[in-house]
Amino acid sequence: MAWFSKKPRIAVVPEPATEPPQPSRMQGLWAKCETCDEIIYRQELEKNWMVCPHCEHHHAWPARARLGALLDADSFEEFDKELEPQDPLGFSDSKKYKDRLKSSRKNLGENDAFISGVGRIDGHQVSVGCFVFEFMGGSMGSVVGEKVARVFERAHELKCPALVFSASGGARMQEGIFSLMQMAKTSAAIARFRTGNKPYVSVLLNPTTGGVAASFSWLGDVILAEPKALIGFAGPRVIEQTIRQKLPEGFQRSEFLLEHGMLDAIVHRKDMRAKLAQLLGLVG
Prior knowledge:
The chain is α/β, with parallel strands linked by helices. The chain has helices at about 40-45, 65-70, 95-110, 140-160, 175-195, 210-215, 235-245, 255-260, 270-284, and strands at about 30, 40, 75-80, 115-120, 125-130, 160-170, 200-210, 220-225, 230, 265. The protein folds into 2 domains: about 30-60, no CATH class; about 60-284, 2-enoyl-CoA Hydratase, Chain A, domain 1. Strands 3, 4, 5, 6, 7, 8, 9 and 10 form an 8-stranded mixed beta sheet that branches. It has a two-stranded antiparallel sheet with strand order 1-2.
């Protein structure tokens, strides 16, 4: 008798494919406040300008919703929407830059991290721009810098005030020196715009950091901010590790900056339209 025996092979029958689970009808109806942990009906949150009704925390607010709420109805005319960023360096880390751009465009329906155009606030014409933070952290590449510069060039041509809402993680590393050049370009555009003696109102949102904070966002004739917005060049953790000192409580938050003379005012989101209308009426 052979010392081994050949056993018949047992066929493995694959399990039938199952359909992916369907999303619950309740999914997306509720939101959790990241500050007070309260559960809020999303529709109620959106009606309240994305501000928590319990603790007044200002949640992220989509750029188009912001412009739609702050500008006069049907007054916004968008420009430069066709501009799209390229990949001049062929940059790749864990993912190719061109693939990141393609994914962001598909998910958000935006070509880049900035929306610009002309609108009115309480009848006052204004050249306006707003960052889309959801698009790669609102980072500033060559196209964002060009669109920001055009906000001021357009304001100069139309002889109207300029208004920019900033929310950004800074210069876009995937474009290297091309992104850093935008700091000088936007600052130069502001210098030319100022020859027309019209005001530039800069509104700093959470967060406004890096190259955006180090250039045009701090060059406003009037600088406003939303409550508890993180504003600064490097983050608090980086600064602490660099200087090896503990930073003051609330460092780089808008309340701290207002106390130290870096801001003109902190404006609650529900009061922003009225404040901007007042400013444009006084200095516009």
